[in-house]
Amino acid sequence: EKVFLNGKIISAEDAKISVFDRGFLFGDGIYEVMVQLENGIFYKKAHLDRLQDNLNKIGVSFHVKTIDDALEPLLKASDLTDKSCLIYMQVTRGVAPRKHSFPKGAPATVMMYALPYDLPSINPKNMKAILEPDFRWHRCDIKSISLLGNIMTNESAMESGADEAALVRDGMISEGSHTNIFFVKDGTVITHPANEHILDGISRQIVLKLCKEMNIPTLEKPVPQTEIQNMDEAFFTGTTTQVASIAVLGEHTFYDNDNVGKTTKRLQEAFAKLRT
Ligand code: PDD
Fold it and tell me: 104, 165, 185, 261: which has the fewest C-beta neighbours closer than 10 Å?
């Protein structure tokens, strides 16, 4: 297994990072996940642009061109050229003595790897999700590598035999632990606005664009937890989730079988077409 680390492609066993790396000490860094599918890296530019925006937001000086240029050699070294795979990238503020203030002049630590990954063109799962309090910070728009809130709520979902946790902040459904969430009511597709309480997912943006193209009305507003029972359909979106129907959300059961709502199904099919 090969990794790209600070300009070099080496084997994973030889890839070493200092214990003084700020990613390790503070979770001080940004990550991205993208997939390569039948027709290339899915929305590569959108992912790299978001990575650059996030690095700018936290004041790490690094240009994603380095990553863009390294993708092809990394895939080649990993024997994944033109193959379905998942690509993980992270950039941290670099190595420096532990101090809260930002170090001056420490070069960013840049790491990425690719792994074989099969993603069916339509997610076959009808997801079961629990509701969990969204106790994360108020900058969820930043794709920070500090993911304690996300992994703790996800783990609660796993412990209760569910597939995902939908998070509730001030009575409103914000997003999933690693997905965005959408509802359908009377033919309108509703999702949380892209503000500091959610990550503006690339898949979220794609679904909103597909809705426009398909003349499906959309509404970007938070849905109160108390309104779940009045919704007709719900689905999660994400790079490794694509569009996944939700069968059960908290106390509410949308379907007790493999049914998928009409609008969800149309969007799943339209999303799958983007790979061809
Ligand atoms: N998760 N919201 C959160 C909190 C996420 O972590 C993610 C992505 C999304 C969906 O974003 P996108 O559509 O750009 O993948 C929403 C990635 C895949 C992960 O942590 O593995």
Answer: 104
Task: Note the CATH architecture for domain 127-273.
Answer: Alpha-Beta Barrel (3.20)
Ligand 1 center to 131 CA (angstroms): 18
Q: Break the chain into its structural domains and give their ranges.
A: 2-116, 127-273
Judge if pTM exceeds 0.95: yes
DSSP character string of 166-185:
EEEETTEEEEESSSEEEEEE
Check whether domain 2-116 has CATH 3.90.45.10, yes or no: no
What ipTM does the predicted assembly reach? 0.98
Over the stretch 172-192, which tens digit does the pLDDT of each residue have?
999 999 999 999 999 999 999
Residue 70 Cα, ligand 1 centroid: separation in angstroms? 23
Listed residue (65, 44, 43) closest to 110, CA to CA: 65
